[in-house]
């Protein structure tokens, strides 16, 4: 009996692959491209509408709404003025986002840093909507139910909504991870080597924002195991180029400080207490974005329910592909598991961390729903209508969540700070966002400390340890902060200052003896005694 040789096919970038390795076709035809584009575009516009609605609520476009956003635009501003993170000031993240923000910081040299942050917030809202588009593009060859569910989950994901209205790392981290995924997958399958290199380049650059980008790369390795030998070289070269080239100038300028801030601080960072498992699951599943008041057991039950839905959908996919999951399905499932475990494991957890799980949760839920629709192919139009209804409910809930989150006007102390602190004065603060908000970040004196992140500075000085009032007066942390205060004309301290600055008796004594206090609500302005206003 003669065996026919396997049919050879060419991938999009011209690389020959084995048709026998391709999955069996879906029982449904490929969806109409125009309809796919309309669906993806509509959901992305809904996501953008949610972000803009939140941004244009009172105080949220220009006010003080976050701690981290001031840090990132301040770091980019320092770079365009010739100062380097790690060498000239502490910065406990890789340099990716400040590098991305340098064009906006250049605009800020003309308009002021306050307007630069406004532009950055608008750009972040656009990036959040673009992430929805990229997720849809990744799934464009699957059925409409898959696309609608996946895109709607990401568009209405509560943590993505909150991070999208200001300037945080996670939306940009998600952006480059999704760009990488779109490049390395050709439909359900692995793309050719050239696209693989470009995709891994994007994943490598994502790691310059947060090293968490290595987590979906682990999932990628699992998805391409049968092809790993042919893809190993573009994988390694792409990841290396994407991460090393942007970081190299900063490492060369200050190798010890770079390793300390980016690696040591993150590994040794301590937290006062561990965030409860139920709280984390509420953020990761999106429950916190609803009006439901669930106890721990109910949160666990909802989480199990999601796992069951995903298991059913992927089980159907496994059965319909003759005991095989497509590489894209392996990547989706592995990313959800790896990223989920990584966010549940350490003591540290903040609301915006969950944003990184959003695209992978949307991806797996979308694929699972699509597989159910394939199994029910005789009534697939009805399943699609249900998916559309679910998407509408999610989007409406997302808008309602954004309204609740921005119900109270954001603080905008710019007028008060501007009236009290003259332009060019040296100001030391525990919250850089105050200086950004009032256009008082730049000082005319060259002796003014170059601080962009008070907490990060303390962590860098003390190898990841948080501020403590019990530190000895001679410790490097206390001596450094006293040095900063000695050069300051003004201090701006928030209620959270003791959690960012070592408020020891020596520090408190110096501040009380040398500064007069002015109350401005949520923060305090302190003016150096005898300061002569210009």
Give an overview of the whole structure.
Helix content is 59%, strand content 5%. It is mainly alpha-helical. The strands form three sheets. A four-stranded mixed beta sheet has the order 5-6-8-7. Strands 1-2 form a two-stranded antiparallel ribbon. A two-stranded antiparallel sheet has the order 3-4. Strand 1 (8-10) and strand 2 (16-18) form a beta hairpin. Helix 2 crosses helix 4, helix 6 packs antiparallel against helix 16 and helix 11 packs across helix 12. The longest helix is centred in the first third of the chain and has 26 residues, at 113-138.
Helix and strand sequence: EEHHHHHHHHEEHHHHHHHHHHEHHHEHEE
Strand ordering within the main sheet: 5-6-8-7
Total count of helical runs of at least 4 residues: 22
Assembly state: single chain
The percent range for strand residues is 5-15%
The strand count comes to 8
Query: Mind summarizing the main beta sheet?
Result: 4 strands, mixed
Tell me the span between the first and last alpha carbons: 98 Å
Radius of gyration: 25 Å
Q: Pairing-aware structural class of the strands and helices?
A: mainly alpha
The low-confidence parts are 1-28
Shape: globular
Mean pLDDT: 89
| Helical coverage, percent range | 55-70%
């Amino acid at each position: 009996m003669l065996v026919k040789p396997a049919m050879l096919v060419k991938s999009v970038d011209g690389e020959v692959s084995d048709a026998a390795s391709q999955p069996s076709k879906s029982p449904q035809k490929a969806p109409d491209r125009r309809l796919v584009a309309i669906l993806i575009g509509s959901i992305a516009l809904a996501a953008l509408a949610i972000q803009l609605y939140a941004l244009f609520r009172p105080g949220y476009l220009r006010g003080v709404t976050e701690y981290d956003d001031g840090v990132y635009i301040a770091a980019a501003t320092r770079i365009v003025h010739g100062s380097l993170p790690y060498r000239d000031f502490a910065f406990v993240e890789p340099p990716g986002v400040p590098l991305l923000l340098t064009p906006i910081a250049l605009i800020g040299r003309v308009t002021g840093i306050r307007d630069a942050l406004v532009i950055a917030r608008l750009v972040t809202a656009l990036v959040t909507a673009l992430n929805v588009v990229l997720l849809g593009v990744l799934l464009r060859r699957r059925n409409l139910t898959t696309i609608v569910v996946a895109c709607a989950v990401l568009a209405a994901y509560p943590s993505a909504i909150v991070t999208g209205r200001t300037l945080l790392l996670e939306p940009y981290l998600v952006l480059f991870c999704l760009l990488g995924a779109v490049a390395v997958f050709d439909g359900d399958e692995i793309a050719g080597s050239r696209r693989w290199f470009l995709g891994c380049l994007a994943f490598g650059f994502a790691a310059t924002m947060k090293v968490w980008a290595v987590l979906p790369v682990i999932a990628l390795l699992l998805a391409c195991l049968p092809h790993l030998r042919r893809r190993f070289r573009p994988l390694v070269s792409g990841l290396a180029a994407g991460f090393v080239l942007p970081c190299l100038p900063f490492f060369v300028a200050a190798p010890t400080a770079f390793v300390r801030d980016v690696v040591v601080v993150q590994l040794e960072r301590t937290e006062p207490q561990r965030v409860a498992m139920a709280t984390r699951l509420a953020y990761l599943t999106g429950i916190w974005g609803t009006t439901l008041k669930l106890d721990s057991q109910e949160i666990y039950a909802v989480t199990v329910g999601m796992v069951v839905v995903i298991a059913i959908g992927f089980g159907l996919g496994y059965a319909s592909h003759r005991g095989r999951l497509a590489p894209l399905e392996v990547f989706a499932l592995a990313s959800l598991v790896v990223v989920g475990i990584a966010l549940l494991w350490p003591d540290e957890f903040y609301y915006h961390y969950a944003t990184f799980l959003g695209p992978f949760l949307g991806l797996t839920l979308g694929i699972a729903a699509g597989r159910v629709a394939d199994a029910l192919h005789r009534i697939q139009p009805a399943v699609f209508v249900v998916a559309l209804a679910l998407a509408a409910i999610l989007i409406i809930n997302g808008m309602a969540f954004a309204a609740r989150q921005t119900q109270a006007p954001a603080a905008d102390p710019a007028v008060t700070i501007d009236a009290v602190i003259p332009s060019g004065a040296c100001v030391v603060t525990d919250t850089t966002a105050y200086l950004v908000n009032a256009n008082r970040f730049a000082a005319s004196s060259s002796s003014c400390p170059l601080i962009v992140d008070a907490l990060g500075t303390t962590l860098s000085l003390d190898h990841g340890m948080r501020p403590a009032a019990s530190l000895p007066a001679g410790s490097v942390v206390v001596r450094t902060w006293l040095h900063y205060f000695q050069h300051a004309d003004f201090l701006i301290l928030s209620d959270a200052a003791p959690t960012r600055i070592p408020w020891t008796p020596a520090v408190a004594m110096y501040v009380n003896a040398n500064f007069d206090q002015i109350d401005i609500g949520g923060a305090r302005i302190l003016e150096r005694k005898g300061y002569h206003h210009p």
